[in-house]
Amino acid sequence: MLDVRRLRLLRELAHHGTIAAVAEALAFSPSAVSQQLSALEREAGVPLLERTGRRVALTPAGLNLVRHTEAVLERLEQASSELAHARQGLAGPLRIGAYPSATRAIVPAALAELAARHPGLEAMVTEVDPAAVAAALRAGELDVALVHEYDLVPAEPEPGVAVTRPLFTEPMYLAARGAGTVAEQSGAPWIMAQPGTLCHQMALRACQAAGFTPRVRHQVDDFGTVLALVAVGQGVALVPHLGTAGGPPPGVTLTRLPMYRRTRAAFRAGAAAHPAVAAFTAALHSVVPAELGGPRDTR
Q: What Pfam families does the database record attribute to this sequence (predicted)?
């Protein structure tokens, strides 16, 4: 019988490419990962791995087993969802991931709504960049997370992860000391998020689409800090609507751009019907501001 925990390790190896990366993603030691994969090969009775330098490649049998593993894990999530429906009331921990501007502007109201409807749920929020969400979901560190994509940085499908339709859509703004276009800021210093984040990729591609490579002066993830730096003449930046909560500082002009950021809820494949995941998604829908496509007060 194949061990499901070892199958998870094989699935992660297919995504990460090295045993060290799998160990880091799942908080194991590299030797423990190697031992478990060797045990899985013995269970399978055929070679699943072949080493090429520091990387480990999967054999055709290993790749085929990963495909079956994805289906098995999705069915297990579905089974877990059905069992949760059979219980009386929602209770226990719900591990939520969210990017910083949503954590500040949307998540608190959603948590209040969730607590009012399901007081037995213990929501626990962790700030995480969308680029790291898939690995955290597959590792079981999160149950549901908010992720976003930009017009210039569409989301790539992630094995083992499902997403909802967009929960809300935000316009993007050029933040500068005066109105203008992105192309007109080719000679200005730029303030961008840390490399490796979707926000950094979006700003870089927006500048490239305007015909130039930006000169990056500051690398800052918090949009409040970004706007404060723009206000004192330290550069220009691209900021989404949630990042402008409370309005810009004096001296900063926000010029709306024909670009958008869309936010979705992500969870493990097969978990869409889990009552806790569905409850959190419903709470999010109910608190999205009307200007971002949320429900309108008809009273």
A: HTH_1 (PF00126), LysR_substrate (PF03466)
